[in-house]
Write a structure and sequence with these properties.
This protein is mostly helical. Helices cover about 70% and strands about 0% of the residues. Helix 1 (about 5-20) crosses helix 3 (about 45-55) and helix 5 (about 75-90) runs antiparallel to helix 6.
Amino acid sequence: MGARSKARKRAVDILFESDLRGLDPTALLAERVGAPELAPVSEYTISLVHGVVEHAEDIDRLLADQAHGWALARMPAVDRAVLRLGVFELLFSAEVDDAVAIDEAIELAKLLSTDDSPRFVNGVLGALAALPRSS
């Protein structure tokens, strides 16, 4: 697993834990960064978590619009975290190509969630990637 893939997984871990525990993701991130007994947190993980938090309202609105038949609250928490990260990289980060953002999210879903999750993640992110974007 490459450095960016590891950073993405760490970001999903933080987003997932903060969601389950009802904590602010940036506060949880700060705890992880400041804990010398834990593995170091990469700059890319930090930028991903901050990006998801900064665009959280838009990300959740887009997910609710595209996840037909699935309310955000009904999604498995790990799928929600993977999708939030995927939407951020897909639509709000210029650092990653669309195909890479989708592929990385699918790989995280394969690694962390159910057998049906990769297809679900692919469908939602694929639909978002197909939407017209303003420049």
